[in-house]
Amino acid sequence: MTTSPTRLWFLDWVRILAFFVLILYHVGMYYVTWDWHVKSPFASHAIEPLMLLSSPWRLGLLFLVSGAASSLMLAKMGAGRFLRQRSARLLLPLIFGMLVIVPPQAYFEVVEKVAYQGGYADFMQLYLGRYRGFCRGSDCLIMPTWNHLWFVAYLWVYTLLLGGLVIAFGARFDRLAARVGALLAGWKIIVLPVAVLSIARMALLSRFPTTHALVDDWFNHATYLFLFLLGAMLARTPLCWPRLEALRWHGLGMAAAGWAALTIYYALPDDLVSAQAVEPLMHAQRIVYCLFAWSAIVAVLGFAHRHLNRDSANRRYLAQAVFPVYIVHQTLIVVIAHAIQPAKLAPPVEALVLIVLTLTLSFGAADIVRRSRVLGPLFGIAPRASAHAVAAAGKRPAAATA
């Protein structure tokens, strides 16, 4: 039987901290060899093992937390109101972001990658005209694009699916959540999610590599939709959170071991592994990858439930500010990184400058946005409620806004 949770402040804290990790990760993308919008002249393999500390789990964690938050809001306001509110809070920022926030990323990408000589106004005409001529070989930039805002598009689609499931299942959705909660006990709370994630990774990753294009991204849908729906189920079975708390140290240990194993795997020379061993080793790596990802999620949720399950003025401020910060942060990183290249700062100093400027300017933008009735909805902030409503909301469980 499911029961209504009374306090889930820790989910907001997890979401806030996950977005901070995302900012650090995107700064790191400027310095590694992996493809990104702009690249440092000093890009190398040096910090790639550090990037691996969060890359397997940070987005999965955000989708799980978003699923839990969506489930709580659905239970509180009903499917119709929930879908209307979530569509407004997600689609407006997505459309505004694609038209205003994201284009500078694409502009500096073509300036650096294909030596585009035109000005920004000329570029915007091409961007809005769906120009397809910015190519390196067969790799062409598709415009307009959502870049890092792909998360918002996916979240909206998953929200619609969750709302549809709740409408179709009715009270049976709670019963299904209760069965899932009862199943995820003891060793099964580790093994079963890892099994689902591993099967998806082994079956789909090679056939459907990541595109973030929504319509053909089937491996990512199998992973992120599963975690989103799992989060929605966990929100209806609050006894699962103490189970994750009890396993927090085990999760941390398995995640650390998984990171070490993956670091070794990616560092192995290609000619060291025989042709016959390549496929079995790849499948083993994918299982370890999923064990690392889920163990890290268990650890994060467990430690957060233990230490961060409380409200505060800081939580209230950050919970509102973090979504506008997320919307603008990557554009700031790209623009600042390109602008300061002529200074030729040493990479550690340059990275610190990027982090400081991105955080300060992002939160500065968030402060402006949250004070504006016009800009607020464009960045996912609901119109200000009355003082009475705000006071009443402070007595209810927290629900993440994205």
TrEMBL record:
The transmembrane segments are 12-32, 59-78, 90-108, 151-171, 183-206, 218-235, 247-266, 286-305, 317-340, 352-369
Any GO MF annotation of the entry: acyltransferase activity, transferring groups other than amino-acyl groups
Record domain Acyltransferase: where: 10-364
| Keyword Methyltransferase among UniProt keywords | no
* Name of this protein: Acyltransferase 3 domain-containing protein
Provenance organism: Massilia violaceinigra
Q: Which domain of life is it from?
A: Bacteria
Please give the Pfam families that the UniProt record associates with this protein: Acyl_transf_3
